[in-house]
Amino acid sequence: MRSNVTIHSPVEIALLDSTLNTPLKIADILDELKTRNNPALEVLIREAFKSMNKPIAKGQGINIQFYHVGSDAYVFLVQPQLTKDYLIMQIARGGGDTEQGNHVENDFDNLRELEKFKLGYLPRTYGTRGRISLCGLTELPVTFTEYLAGYACLDNTHFGMPSNFKLLGHSDEDIEFDLEQSIDIMKQIIKIVTYIFARTYDSKTNKGRLVTEVVPEAGDFVYKVDSKKGQPSVKMVAVRQLDDALPRELLFYLNAPIGVYVMTDEGLMPRYFMAIGDKNHDATMLEGVRIGLREVFGCKADKMLAAWVDDYNKNIKRDLTRIFSGIADGNIRSYDDVPAGYRTMLRCFAVRSYLQQEEERTNCCRAPTAEDYAKSFSALGKIRECIVDKVTDSMLINTRR
To answer: H or E segment at 132?
Structure first.
């Protein structure tokens, strides 16, 4: 018996899926979903709507529209016929025991964990994590979250002239934001990360939950432009990694130069949470943090931030020195053992160091692979001085700038 699923406006995009090991088009995948004699897809969608107390009537069909494709998942809009309610459906591009599958399921679990704090900047989750059989291969994880109507996906970044920070949205035309809008977007992203940390912060343990794998230009955020103000409103739709962290780790993460591809004239990596051309990064970063804290702690926010900045400036070198000592004596054996707020920068610097060695050996420059990330941990010791001394000195936060 065929699943009662109707395919609506499939988008032809050629893809090479490492799991399927063959070139496929979105239309082909949709056709498989429509014609396979496995009703699991329809059951999952119906159960998701039932969990919202909006059950789909028996015999009522379901529309599916292609929305977005990421490195981990195919993203669709699903809608029962005769209703106005859409859901975001993500189908992992790898099985449940793959990195892609784990990312999709972890993202869903993280969103669900944060739901109890009633965060207004995140979509709701629906139903439970499920699995479907796609093209007769391994079961693929499927998750459902709220579709934020009116918002478009921040999908890609193009670093052009220093005065511009360009973002491509999920729309018929490419959207290019000017520098002022770009700075506002990055400030809002910092605010959201800080807001999540603040809402989950426990003063007894001095820790909150930190989103540590934020990628502003890879589908983690959606936006809509306010017709009156002309400025984008931003929400986070993916929480890839969620860890316990100290306030100074939050500030380090937002202030750290992280990335693997581009170097500045001074030899340091570009700061990630900034718009290209933003010469007042510290002020932009601190303002985003301040706004996030004020939404939770009100008038106490400024005093808390001042204390957190002071603690950050006093302890940043000591923390990093302890991390490298832990690596040297074997107590820290992988990136997973590194405190959450420091992990991303250390990994990126190590990958850069590792790739430079590979380039010298092979005379070939390339983008990093998952294997490179795994091997790069051993390169950390060789860049200890650069990170502990040169980088940290440049990262001290001056609130008077």
So the answer is: strand 125-133
